[in-house]
Design goal:
Layout lengths: L1 H27 L20 H11 L4 E5 L8 H7 L4 E5 L5 H11 L7 E6 L1 H4 L23 H4 L2 H16 L22 H10 L8 H17 L4 E6 L4 H9 L3 H15 L5 E4 L4 H8 L12 H13 L9 H14 L11
Parallel strand pairs: 1-2, 1-3, 3-4, 4-5
Helix pairs in contact: 2-4, 3-13, 9-11, 11-14
Length: 349
């Protein structure tokens, strides 16, 4: 009898503790999954798009939302507020895959104030399987299954890493600079330069062939969002990778497939009046992508280019149309194909 009573009270204490812990996390809600901050708290955003992008999309106020990978993380929201009307927020995830894009679109497009969605368009976005890049990605923060929210509400790691820090930062008035959330090029280890590109040019994994079945299916799914939300304007730009990136594609015979992917994608996207597509192919952009000191590897550029992209999107510089996109792409790829790759790193050898 005493044993049964002990077990009964023990279970009651455990269940009460779990319920109170869940309520505690729900009220503070450090990842902004359920509501805006209560009790006079301010949201504290850590540089972790995996955990925070969904909350930003759900519970921030915005008219314009930047969705993208590390290619879009160095945007400052204020740059877009100068070019576009309304409030701009940023929900970026490093290594973003189609599934991430769709998760965020499913959130932001249901918000009545969403007017513009800005997305960096590249191979990882469309030409990869429609799945998360990492098995450890916190899917429970993005799906509609409320039962698996237990992974958030009763997660000790989230309590220590985010809940406690949210309260501590508020207590010490260490507020988040929302203009630069998720920015990485100001980190102390974010080094740029031709030597870094040189090292990664030879050490990086070999590029793989573009899978046509992936990008045809994924692009079709993405275009359904464009078609179903005609009042929202979608701004897409081809990420301005360095000339070294294109050199590797040519070197490993993956260039033609990538080229075909881009021609096909643009032909489909430009069918929609509410989709604006940009190719960074003016002289400034070509000079920039050929100056490897602007990059930390063959793909990642510094925020100087991000600022230029924001300006282009706001002023329609480098905008493609149904009439000019083929010629613009022809000229862009002609530049890539005529580049002197043999002497690209001559001064470093």
């Amino acid at each position: 009898m005493e044993t049964r009573r002990f077990i009964k009270y023990f279970l009651l204490i455990v269940i009460s503790f779990l319920v109170l812990s869940g309520i505690y996390t729900f009220c503070v809600d450090p990842l902004l999954q359920y509501h805006k901050p209560w009790f006079g708290l301010r949201p504290i955003i850590f540089n972790d798009g995996y955990y925070f992008a969904g909350g930003v999309a759900k519970n921030f106020d915005y008219d314009n939302l930047i969705i993208g990978s590390s290619m879009s993380q160095n945007f400052r929201s204020s740059w877009f507020e100068k070019e576009f009307e309304g409030i701009t927020a940023k929900a970026t995830i490093p290594g973003m895959r189609p599934k991430n894009i769709y998760d965020l679109l499913n959130i932001c497009l249901k918000k009545p104030n969403t007017k513009n969605v800005i997305i960096n368009f590249d191979m990882a976005f469309i030409a990869k399987p429609n799945e998360y890049r990492y098995e450890s990605f916190p899917k429970y923060l993005y799906d509609k299954n409320y039962f698996n929210d237990i992974n958030y509400l009763l997660n000790k790691e989230i309590d220590i890493k985010y809940t406690q820090h949210t309260l501590s930062n508020n207590r010490h008035k260490q507020w988040t600079d929302f203009d630069s959330i998720f920015v990485w090029d100001t980190d102390k280890d974010a080094r740029f330069g031709k030597k870094r590109v040189y090292d990664r040019y030879f050490k990086a994994e070999k590029p793989t062939q573009v899978n046509k079945s992936y990008y045809v299916k994924n692009l079709g799914d993405f275009c359904e969002y464009i078609e179903n939300y005609p009042s929202v304007t979608f701004y897409l730009f081809l990420s301005p990778y360095s000339i070294a990136y294109w050199g590797r594609q040519i070197k490993y015979d993956t260039y033609e497939g990538l080229k075909e992917f881009i021609y096909y994608s643009f032909s489909q996207l430009l069918k929609y009046d509410n989709c604006k597509v940009y190719l960074l192919s003016d002289q400034y952009s070509l000079d920039y992508m050929s100056n490897l000191d602007n990059y930390r590897d063959t793909q990642h550029y510094n925020s100087k280019m991000n600022k230029y992209i924001a300006n282009c999107l706001g002023t329609d510089v480098n905008l493609l149309t149904k009439d000019n996109y083929k010629q613009k792409l022809d000229d862009f790829f002609a530049y890539i194909e005529s580049y002197d790759y043999e002497n690209m790193f001559k001064d470093l050898k």
